[in-house]
Amino acid sequence: MGLPTYGLMGVDWEQRVQLDRLRSERLGRISRLLADSELGALLCFDMTNIRYITATHIGTWAQDKLNRFCLLPQSDQPIMWDFGSAARHHQLYNPWLGEERSRAGISTLRGAMAPEAGRAENVAEKIRVELAERDLLSEPIGVDAVEPAVLFALQAAGIEVVDGQQLMQEARVIKSEDEVTLLNTACMMVDAAYEELYRQMRPGMRENECVGLVNKVLYDMGSEFVEGVNAISGERCNPHPHVYTDRTLRPGDPAYFDILHSFMGYRTCYYRTFAVGSASRSLVDAYKRCRFHLDAAIELIRPGVTTADVVQVWPRAEEFGFADEEAAFALQFGHGVGLAIWEKPIFSRLVSLDHPEEIREGMVFALETFWPASDGWSAARIEEQLVVTKDGCEVITRFPAEDLVIAGRPYYTVGGSLPLQRETQSNLNTRLDADSQEAIPAAGQPPIGDGRGADRLPSGDRGAASIR
């Protein structure tokens, strides 16, 4: 365990995240890549790319607006056009940007402004002037995401627009020391959210209440933005719907969660699966299978291995009930994590076998697996976020997941506590064995049958003491 976990404050007596270094290293990396490219400049409307280049931020409400933009010319400093008074704020509080390079500017608000207002042409003219001053008008300009009206206006102004996303992705794929620390800190905060969720989850609690609880924990700790919380329970687990509801948790339910939030812009993507009160044999088996595929991938991670090497150890889509890899996309999956939750490299049998990417030291990504249970409705989902080191990797998601965790208090009967592995239908736990005519063993004993799952559970998981 080589990565430090600091507090959330800045202090003078301990060297933690160095924000000036973070800003300069990010800008330096993309500037070097731009200098080595055929592009004359980068024009960015995506807020994550703008933040990477300029270290400016105006709140996550603007994340999908495409209304603010920055230009990074070859061999020069970035210029930022921002929303209303935000430009003035940058002049006062962002000295690394400089007063002259922080300017007011606004796009079309995703088409909300009338085309006749000429906002798209205004954006294009601002860019044309800067390129002309630097003798870059004849060079192609890389753009990451753009409104159609702005794209057409840029082209009408004589600017050749090409894809700038790949250059930005290449810049962001290797994380600096400070970026790794921030990503590790963000995961630490989710560790705490899962701990509170584990303590509070019980029958009668709803999925949306779980989401509210996670949001409160994270925002109280200093999260900048809770991007989303997947809360999936019961029969909703299979197929995975990727969205929470107001469904109420019931005894024996599977429940899995994905917590996505950012600390100083750096994201998490972090799944965990629980069972409420107890787990069925089929869910226990599904969890073990899900964990097996995840661990097989993690064991391969080191510099020089490719994404194709990793996805080859994952099952084909047809093996877990899907027609093809596109239909099963993102269930056996991996993706870079940084200022966005989906960055390079991508791990998927859909693309990685034919277009592998090399794993390099300093990458940070998440690996996530899914397995449907044999009962046809429950499922397991696990995800670990990790940092690639010089000789392997370090997992930075630490809430326990090596075995299925039971949330909620144990149930007590006259015979003791009910076992943590039991079926949701009581008659299946009390029926007579067809061959021996003997009752199913008492609480705490492995069930009669083929023995799958129960005989592999650690002894501490069979009694109430482990979840008191």
Average of the residue pLDDT scores = 92
N-to-C SSE string, H for helix and E for strand: HEHEEHEHEHEHHHEEEEHHEEEEEEEEH
Can you name the CATH architecture of the largest domain?
Alpha-Beta Complex
Based on secondary structure, the structural category is alpha+beta
The first-level CATH class of the largest domain is given as: Alpha Beta
- Please tally the β strands and state the result: 18
Quaternary state of the chains:
single chain
CATH superfamily of the largest domain: Creatinase/methionine aminopeptidase superfamily
Give the tally of structural domains.
Answer: 3
- Biggest β-sheet: count, sense, barrel? 6 strands, mixed
Straight-line N-to-C gap: 29 Å
What does this structure look like?
With 468 residues, the protein is of the alpha+beta class. The protein has three domains: 154 residues, Creatinase/prolidase N-terminal domain (Creatine Amidinohydrolase, Chain A, domain 1, 3-Layer(aba) Sandwich), CATH 3.40.350.10; 231 residues, Creatine Amidinohydrolase; 44 residues, no CATH class. The protein is built from eleven helices and 18 strands. The strands form four sheets. Strands 4-3-2-1-5-6 form a six-stranded mixed sheet, with helices on both faces. Strands 7, 8, 9, 10 and 16 form a five-stranded mixed sheet that branches. Strands 12-11-13-14-15 form a five-stranded antiparallel sheet. Helix 4 crosses helix 5. The chain is elongated. The C terminus is likely disordered.
